Write a sequence for this structure.
């Protein structure tokens, strides 16, 4: 645990090093095969070893920023005294010391102490690198949260973030202007200055509340527009009852169209109940499914044949066949709806439509539904649809593929015996493989192949059952040679009984 009690280092069973943030409850992996780890005293810097690499994390808030150093031994100690931090490494018969960057260590200490000026001084003595840029960002964010604006400005300037620097200059200029008007103070507590700082922090709702508390509706709206939050800007105008609301809506709509945001423009028109324009915009935005939903739910739009045609064509072109079927069904073009449902494999919708509009087509669609399920390897689900279509043979084949032997037998009772015989034999083969000989015999006999049942018994060394079945089937003379051969074998074995 670090000195501030905010970070916890631990290793798992595989020696991977993790850091656990006690505030956010999140853990992050740092290095693998960690054999040594230690906090640098009085700082949040971590020293660790992974095989032959000395790893230093000067900024624990960025665990991916590891400073590596190759060593030839094992870390034995870590010391910090007289303004110098050293890692002691045992390299055979000698001990070698490696100095850490004291400036980076002191930076972390200054951050913990809240001494941002000292942190800036340390960073100014360092060359720009990915590690130091992260530290400038961290310091800038902390300084901004602590409202040390001058320090934050210096940090953003170091990172080359000119937009943030200009924004801070505008905030400071506003604060100075307020201070002059008030005849004293620094002007930082003025609502407009606080609102601009809230925007920098990303706290837009706070900035909005600060403006609205002062009755500055236009300023709140303008704040949102500057950060490209047009919807929030319009919401403020609507909520506060802006006198020019219609003009604002029109301008917003024109901006959406000009910037190619037809989908949002369509939503705006839908909210205004201008459904025709909304449907046209949804179609233009490449969202024909939403346009179709408007048409389906609007009796007025369903009379617009040209629009319905265009939406239907877009749906079919986009592979949204089921939604196209719903659209055609809503305008009572049932034949086109049925074709769309079948093309989109929406057979449940197709069957429902057939029952009301095309009763003679129900069995055709049911069979097609079964074929689709069978071809997509859903044999068990295909069975009831084949049965509904009166296609018993297909139902039996689906049941056999699905290994639903009992179900196949039940269906076979409705099939012509001449056709059913070969399927009974397949069922017999299945039960024979399960060594359920009684059922196997039954279905072999029903399939007209008692010889297969006799062979089954012989291979299972069940001669009595084989002989009994042979006599019952009048095949005992045909299989006599097999019985004689078996008897001779038993005689040689001395098994005379």
């Amino acid at each position: 645990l670090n000195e501030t009690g905010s970070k916890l280092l631990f290793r798992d069973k595989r020696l991977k090093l993790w850091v656990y943030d006690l505030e956010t409850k999140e853990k992050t992996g740092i290095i693998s095969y960690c054999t040594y780890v230690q906090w640098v005293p009085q700082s949040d810097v971590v020293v660790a070893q992974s095989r032959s690499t000395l790893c230093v994390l000067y900024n624990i808030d960025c665990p991916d920023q590891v400073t590596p150093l190759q060593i030839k031994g094992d870390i034995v100690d870590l010391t910090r005294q007289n303004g110098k931090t050293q890692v002691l490494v045992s390299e055979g018969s000698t001990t070698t010391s490696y100095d850490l960057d004291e400036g980076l260590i002191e930076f972390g200490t200054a951050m913990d102490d809240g001494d941002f000026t000292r942190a800036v001084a340390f960073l100014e003595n360092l060359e720009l690198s990915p590690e130091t840029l992260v530290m400038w960002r961290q310091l800038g964010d902390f300084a901004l949260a602590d409202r040390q604006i001058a320090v934050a400005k210096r940090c953003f300037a170091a990172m080359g973030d000119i937009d943030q620097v200009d924004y801070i200059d505008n905030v400071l200029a506003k604060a100075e202007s307020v201070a002059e008007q008030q005849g004293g103070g620094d002007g930082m507590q003025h609502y407009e200055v606080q609102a601009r700082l809230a925007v920098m922090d990303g706290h837009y709702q706070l900035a909005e509340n600060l403006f609205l508390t002062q009755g500055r509706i236009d300023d709140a709206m303008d704040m949102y527009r500057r950060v490209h939050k047009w919807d929030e800007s319009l919401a403020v105008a609507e909520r506060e009852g802006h006198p020019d609301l219609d003009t604002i809506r029109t301008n917003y709509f024109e901006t959406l169209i000009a910037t190619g945001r037809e989908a949002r423009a369509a939503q705006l028109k839908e909210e205004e109940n201008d459904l025709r324009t909304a449907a046209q915009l949804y179609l233009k935005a490449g969202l024909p499914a939403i346009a179709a939903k408007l048409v389906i739910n609007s009796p007025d739009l369903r009379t617009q044949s040209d629009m319905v045609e265009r939406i239907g064509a877009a749906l079919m072109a986009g592979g949204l066949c089921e939604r196209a079927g719903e659209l055609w069904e809503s305008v009572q073009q049932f034949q086109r709806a049925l074709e769309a449902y079948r093309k989109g494999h929406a057979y449940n919708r197709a069957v429902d439509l057939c029952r009301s509009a095309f009763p003679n087509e129900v069995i055709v669609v049911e069979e097609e539904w079964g074929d689709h399920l069978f071809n997509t390897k859903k044999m068990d689900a295909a069975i009831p649809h084949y049965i509904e279509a009166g296609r018993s043979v297909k139902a039996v084949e689906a049941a056999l593929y699905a290994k639903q032997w009992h179900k196949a037998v039940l269906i076979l009772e409705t099939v012509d015996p001449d056709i059913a015989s070969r399927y009974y034999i397949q069922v017999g083969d299945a039960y024979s493989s399960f060594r359920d000989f009684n059922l196997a015999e039954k279905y072999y006999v029903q399939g007209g192949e008692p010889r297969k049942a006799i062979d089954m018994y012989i291979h299972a060394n069940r001669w009595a059952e084989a002989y009994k079945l042979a006599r019952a089937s009048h095949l005992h003379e045909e299989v006599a040679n097999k019985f004689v051969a078996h008897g001779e074998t038993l005689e040689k074995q001395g098994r005379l009984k």
The longest strand covers residues 74-81.
